[in-house]
Protein backbone atom coordinates (compact mmCIF):
# COMPACT_ATOMS: atom_id res chain seq x y z
CA UNK A 1 0.00 0.00 0.00
CA UNK A 2 2.81 2.42 0.87
CA UNK A 3 4.58 1.68 -2.42
CA UNK A 4 1.31 2.35 -4.20
CA UNK A 5 0.98 5.72 -2.44
CA UNK A 6 4.56 6.67 -3.31
CA UNK A 7 4.01 5.63 -6.91
CA UNK A 8 0.82 7.72 -6.99
CA UNK A 9 2.65 10.74 -5.55
CA UNK A 10 5.47 10.38 -8.06
CA UNK A 11 2.93 9.97 -10.88
CA UNK A 12 1.06 13.11 -9.82
CA UNK A 13 4.30 15.05 -9.78
CA UNK A 14 5.34 13.68 -13.15
CA UNK A 15 1.91 14.34 -14.69
CA UNK A 16 2.09 18.05 -13.89
CA UNK A 17 5.09 18.62 -16.12
CA UNK A 18 7.14 16.72 -18.62
CA UNK A 19 10.26 18.63 -17.54
CA UNK A 20 10.16 18.20 -13.79
CA UNK A 21 12.61 16.56 -11.44
CA UNK A 22 11.59 14.32 -8.60
CA UNK A 23 13.97 14.35 -5.65
CA UNK A 24 13.65 11.85 -2.82
CA UNK A 25 15.61 12.78 0.31
CA UNK A 26 16.15 10.43 3.24
CA UNK A 27 18.48 10.19 6.19
CA UNK A 28 20.85 7.24 6.42
CA UNK A 29 19.44 4.20 8.19
CA UNK A 30 20.16 3.17 11.78
CA UNK A 31 23.84 2.75 12.58
CA UNK A 32 25.51 0.01 14.61
CA UNK A 33 27.25 2.43 17.00
CA UNK A 34 28.21 6.07 17.49
CA UNK A 35 31.71 5.85 16.01
CA UNK A 36 32.83 8.31 13.34
CA UNK A 37 31.97 6.11 10.34
CA UNK A 38 29.83 3.18 11.50
CA UNK A 39 28.17 0.42 9.52
CA UNK A 40 24.41 -0.09 9.59
CA UNK A 41 22.77 -2.06 12.38
CA UNK A 42 20.38 -4.92 11.57
CA UNK A 43 17.51 -2.41 11.82
CA UNK A 44 19.44 -0.12 9.46
CA UNK A 45 19.98 -2.89 6.94
CA UNK A 46 16.25 -3.65 7.05
CA UNK A 47 15.48 0.06 6.51
CA UNK A 48 17.88 0.18 3.53
CA UNK A 49 16.00 -2.75 1.99
CA UNK A 50 12.69 -1.02 2.77
CA UNK A 51 13.94 2.07 0.92
CA UNK A 52 14.71 -0.04 -2.14
CA UNK A 53 11.23 -1.56 -1.96
CA UNK A 54 9.63 1.90 -1.63
CA UNK A 55 11.53 3.15 -4.68
CA UNK A 56 11.10 0.03 -6.82
CA UNK A 57 8.76 1.88 -9.20
CA UNK A 58 10.46 5.29 -8.92
CA UNK A 59 13.44 4.50 -11.21
CA UNK A 60 16.06 6.88 -9.78
CA UNK A 61 18.69 7.75 -12.35
CA UNK A 62 20.95 9.63 -9.91
CA UNK A 63 21.80 8.50 -6.37
CA UNK A 64 23.79 10.89 -4.17
CA UNK A 65 25.27 10.14 -0.75
CA UNK A 66 27.89 11.54 1.57
CA UNK A 67 31.20 9.64 1.57
CA UNK A 68 30.34 7.99 4.91
CA UNK A 69 29.55 4.27 5.02
CA UNK A 70 26.11 4.67 6.58
CA UNK A 71 24.79 6.73 3.66
CA UNK A 72 26.43 4.56 1.01
CA UNK A 73 25.10 1.39 2.65
CA UNK A 74 21.60 2.87 2.96
CA UNK A 75 21.58 3.65 -0.77
CA UNK A 76 23.18 0.34 -1.83
CA UNK A 77 20.04 -1.85 -2.16
CA UNK A 78 18.29 0.85 -4.23
CA UNK A 79 21.38 1.36 -6.39
CA UNK A 80 21.69 -2.38 -6.94
CA UNK A 81 17.99 -2.83 -7.73
CA UNK A 82 18.06 -0.09 -10.37
CA UNK A 83 21.64 -0.76 -11.60
CA UNK A 84 22.54 2.87 -10.87
CA UNK A 85 25.84 3.66 -9.16
CA UNK A 86 25.67 5.91 -6.15
CA UNK A 87 27.86 9.00 -6.15
CA UNK A 88 29.51 10.09 -2.90
CA UNK A 89 29.58 13.89 -2.65
CA UNK A 90 32.53 15.20 -0.67
CA UNK A 91 32.25 16.68 2.81
CA UNK A 92 35.36 18.75 2.19
CA UNK A 93 34.72 22.38 3.01
CA UNK A 94 32.07 21.57 5.62
CA UNK A 95 28.31 21.12 5.62
CA UNK A 96 27.55 24.23 3.59
CA UNK A 97 29.89 23.18 0.80
CA UNK A 98 28.48 19.64 0.84
CA UNK A 99 24.91 20.91 0.57
CA UNK A 100 25.86 23.31 -2.23
CA UNK A 101 27.56 20.45 -4.12
CA UNK A 102 24.47 18.23 -3.72
CA UNK A 103 22.19 21.02 -4.97
CA UNK A 104 24.51 21.68 -7.93
CA UNK A 105 24.49 17.97 -8.80
CA UNK A 106 20.67 17.86 -8.63
CA UNK A 107 20.39 20.98 -10.79
CA UNK A 108 22.80 19.42 -13.33
CA UNK A 109 20.66 16.26 -13.63
CA UNK A 110 18.20 16.00 -16.51
CA UNK A 111 14.97 17.95 -16.02
CA UNK A 112 12.92 14.75 -15.88
CA UNK A 113 15.30 12.80 -13.60
CA UNK A 114 14.43 11.10 -10.35
CA UNK A 115 17.20 11.72 -7.83
CA UNK A 116 17.69 9.89 -4.53
CA UNK A 117 19.71 11.71 -1.86
CA UNK A 118 20.81 9.89 1.29
CA UNK A 119 22.08 12.35 3.88
CA UNK A 120 22.28 12.95 7.59
CA UNK A 121 19.92 14.40 10.21
CA UNK A 122 21.59 17.81 9.85
CA UNK A 123 21.77 17.81 6.03
CA UNK A 124 18.42 16.33 4.95
CA UNK A 125 16.31 19.38 5.93
CA UNK A 126 19.01 21.79 4.74
CA UNK A 127 19.17 20.14 1.32
CA UNK A 128 15.38 20.26 0.98
CA UNK A 129 15.36 23.95 1.90
CA UNK A 130 18.26 24.68 -0.48
CA UNK A 131 16.22 23.06 -3.26
CA UNK A 132 13.34 25.43 -2.51
CA UNK A 133 11.20 23.44 -0.04
CA UNK A 134 11.01 26.01 2.76
CA UNK A 135 8.66 23.82 4.82
CA UNK A 136 11.40 21.27 5.57
CA UNK A 137 11.46 20.79 9.34
CA UNK A 138 14.63 20.11 11.30
CA UNK A 139 15.25 16.43 11.96
CA UNK A 140 15.91 15.05 15.43
CA UNK A 141 18.82 12.64 15.87
CA UNK A 142 16.42 9.77 16.63
CA UNK A 143 14.40 10.02 13.37
CA UNK A 144 15.18 7.60 10.55
CA UNK A 145 11.87 7.03 8.75
CA UNK A 146 11.27 10.43 7.08
CA UNK A 147 11.13 10.52 3.30
CA UNK A 148 10.82 13.92 1.66
CA UNK A 149 9.65 13.74 -1.95
CA UNK A 150 10.11 16.97 -3.89
CA UNK A 151 8.89 17.93 -7.32
CA UNK A 152 11.21 20.58 -8.77
CA UNK A 153 10.34 22.85 -11.63
CA UNK A 154 12.99 25.50 -12.03
CA UNK A 155 13.41 27.17 -8.65
CA UNK A 156 9.97 26.08 -7.41
CA UNK A 157 9.65 23.04 -5.17
CA UNK A 158 6.51 21.24 -4.06
CA UNK A 159 6.86 18.43 -1.59
CA UNK A 160 5.34 15.80 0.60
CA UNK A 161 6.79 14.20 3.68
CA UNK A 162 5.97 10.59 4.35
CA UNK A 163 7.34 7.67 6.34
CA UNK A 164 8.91 4.43 5.18
CA UNK A 165 10.17 1.28 6.82
CA UNK A 166 9.70 0.57 10.51
CA UNK A 167 8.43 3.62 12.42
CA UNK A 168 10.96 5.44 14.57
CA UNK A 169 9.90 7.14 17.76
CA UNK A 170 11.70 9.95 19.49
CA UNK A 171 11.36 10.56 23.16
What's the short version?
By secondary structure, this protein is of the alpha/beta class. The chain contains five helices and six strands; from the N terminus they run αβαβαβαβαββ.
How would you explain this protein's 3D organization?
The protein has 171 residues and is of the alpha/beta class. Helices cover 37% and strands 21% of the residues. The protein has 5 helices and 6 strands; from the N terminus they run αβαβαβαβαββ. The chain has a 6-stranded mixed beta sheet, sandwiched between helices. α2 runs parallel beside α3. It is globular and about 40 Å long. 40% of the residues are buried.
What labels describe this entry?
single chain; 171 residues; alpha/beta; 5 helices
**Shape summary:** globular
Q: How many strand units?
A: 6
Distance between the termini: 28 Å
Order of helices and strands: HEHEHEHEHEE
Q: Reading side by side through the largest sheet, how are the strands ordered?
A: 3-2-4-1-5-6
Model regions low in confidence, pLDDT < 50 over at least 5 residues: 4-18
Percentage of β-strand residues: 15-25%
| Major β-sheet profile | 6 strands, mixed
Give average pLDDT, whole number.
Answer: 91
Radius of gyration: 15 Å
Helix content: 25-40%
What is the helix tally?
5
Structural class: alpha/beta
Amino acid sequence: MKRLLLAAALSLFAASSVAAQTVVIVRHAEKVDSSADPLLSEAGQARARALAAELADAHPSVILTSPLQRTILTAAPTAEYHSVPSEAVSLEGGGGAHIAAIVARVRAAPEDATVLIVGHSNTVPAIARALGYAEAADMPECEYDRMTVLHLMGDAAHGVVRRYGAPTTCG
